[in-house]
Amino acid sequence: MEKTASEIVMVKKNVRLQEWNRQIEEQKSSGLSIQEWCKQNGINLKTYYYHLRKVREEYLRSGKGENSQEKKETERAVVPILAAPSGGNISIEKNGLHITLPENISAEVLIAVVNKLC
Fold this sequence. Notes:
By secondary structure, the chain is α+β, with helices and mostly antiparallel strands. It is built from five helices and three strands.
């Protein structure tokens, strides 16, 4: 039970990091200043910068101490996930396998699918 609870905590943390990473990328591509983007999206500026720091820390932590072979293996393990804006589905493609999932799929199921693919 303890292992499962800690796994759930890690899944939640990863989902939050992925969501904030998506929002940070959205802000960058919006052409708006961080302050203006946060204002338009109802996000406190301090909250944005807190999560920006967390996303950056995770990026650095995950890349620390890797040699070039480990980096290549990590790059191969990345599964591109494309959300179709009009269809509302999530499309996952890896090694010629294409999976389409509904946009309202739970984070736990989506993560389990991605983990099985990797």
